[in-house]
Fold this protein.
Amino acid sequence: MPIDTAPRYDIYGGIHKGLRLALAHLLLRIGSADFADLRATAELLADLRAQLALSRAHLAHEEAHIHPALESRAPGAGQRLEHQHRHHEVRFEELADLIARLEVAQPGARPAIGHALYLAFSLFVAEDFAHMHEEETVTGPLLQAHFTDADLQAIEFGIISSLTPEENIAYMRLMLPAMTPAERLALLAGMKAGAPAEAFSAVIELAARPMLAAHDFAALVRGLGLGLAA
Ligand SMILES: [Fe+2]
């Protein structure tokens, strides 16, 4: 496959890297969980529920902000994606059902339900990874053919500005550790220039500082020209 060495604005790249990291980490945790440990299981299931809510909301953001733009320039191009999103909805319901069953299961039944949850989640992750791959290899180039980088950036900032402050921090905590230093710096430099100062500073203190390794955080602070202690 040819590789574009002068890449254009990638609307999917950062958030999809964040989702992949979070889903992979959860898959590992569910696979190695001791479902007899009630406290650890409750914590794991709360984290899983929170991640599934973010994954579900991400689909809604694409449907509200990206698909209408895509359809306006390339009619029909969003239909396969919408179909895949509807299929994801079925998976979200199946996972919610397994989580609820595990929460009330008798001790003897917990390992079997936990394993069923592991398998169901692995299938969702596989399907979501394939879906995101299609978005980045098929839909992304199509968007780049029909929109300028500035248009695409405006669509992405439209999504970001539709989030509550808490949602914004939750997505930034997924994305920042998953991105390359250069991608991270570009995203936050854009935010520093365009977002309200309090929102930018919340991202630095509540997402970047706690989620990045000390040397990555220090490099980011230097790159952004911030006078902060690392
Ligand atoms: Fe999608």
User: Anything to note?
Assistant: The chain has two domains: 13-162, 165-230. The chain has a mean pLDDT of 94.
